[in-house]
Design brief:
alpha/beta, two-stranded antiparallel ribbon, 13 helices, disordered C terminus
């Protein structure tokens, strides 16, 4: 793929597995339309948001692979500390361009620049994205940035500093949970790729527990051997870790109420767990959940 300029190999990354990409047809078409209409003075910033684990990174990877024939693709990513391979966005961009001028390159072909986990961007990283967005106003550059919504216990919110981008005319795109038919297609693909099988009852349980989350589907499939051997329950690992963290925020009396309610089959959503926690503990609980 001569027009694909990732700063790191993603072919065998755990975030971009071997099973097929499922769903997101409308979003893929939207990105293609934005890219098709990109011209000098008509670039764009597309901001993708969604809950953790819904496939934003996989979506960026899929877009990069599909659009590499029609555009030069530059793939960047943020972490809370240092970025892909320990590099900042500025270093990643310089490595991808290899001393070529961004605007000269954009005159030859449209540029699609994907930025993953932009909510983790450092101030210097934000400056790089701002520079790319400003360049899109003069060149054929489309910036596709994925952001994990922060878990607040009462719903999901975007980091406050991203409001400036949305007010500046960024195209917003939300990745929702997969619907039941697509969830089942993805589950069967994951089972096949992992060499696992599941009877009808187990399949129904996995689909119910995952509730359309690709991450939960993957974690539940990976946990099947432990479940069969009796060493684990059918619970996603990331959710289990979050429950352990939340439990530490409850007073014994509150946790006793939850245990009693669970004996009668009552289900508690995550925001209710946070509301039941002591006020002094709520902020820590929300922060821990947002990092899961």
């Amino acid at each position: 793929m001569g027009n694909y300029l990732p700063t790191t190999s993603m072919a065998k990354s755990p975030s971009h597995p071997v099973w097929p990409f499922v769903g997101r047809v409308a979003q893929l078409k939207m990105v293609r339309q934005v890219l098709a209409h990109a011209e000098p003075g008509a670039g764009a910033l597309v901001l993708i948001d969604g809950e953790p684990g819904l496939g934003k990174s996989r979506f960026l990877h899929e877009v990069a692979a599909r659009e590499s024939r029609s555009a030069v693709v530059i793939s960047l990513g943020c972490t809370a500390a240092s970025g892909i391979g320990g590099k900042s966005l500025a270093e990643q961009l310089a490595a991808a361009l290899r001393e070529r001028d961004l605007h000269v390159l954009a005159r030859q072909r449209p540029i699609l620049c994907t930025v993953d986990d932009v909510q983790k961007a450092t101030p210097d990283d934000r400056t790089v994205v701002d520079t790319l967005v400003q360049a899109s106003a003069m060149s054929r550059i489309v910036v596709l940035a994925a952001c994990t919504a922060e878990w607040s216990g009462i719903g999901s919110t975007m980091p406050a500093w991203l409001d400036a981008w949305t007010r500046a005319g960024a195209v917003s795109m939300n990745l929702a949970r997969l619907d039941p038919p697509r969830s089942e297609i993805l589950l069967r693909a994951m089972l096949s790729a992992c060499g696992e099988t599941a009877d009808a009852q187990t399949t129904a349980a996995i689909l119910r527990i995952a509730a359309g989350s690709p991450r939960y589907l993957r974690e539940l499939v990976n946990r099947l051997p432990e479940v069969r051997s009796g060493n684990a329950q059918l619970i996603p690992r990331s959710a289990e870790a979050q429950i352990v963290r939340l439990r530490s925020a409850f007073e014994p009396a509150v946790f006793a109420i939850l245990r009693e309610a669970s004996a009668f089959g009552s289900e508690f959503a995550e925001e209710w767990l946070v509301r039941l926690a002591p006020p002094a503990q709520q902020h820590r609980s929300r922060g821990a959940a947002g990092r899961s």
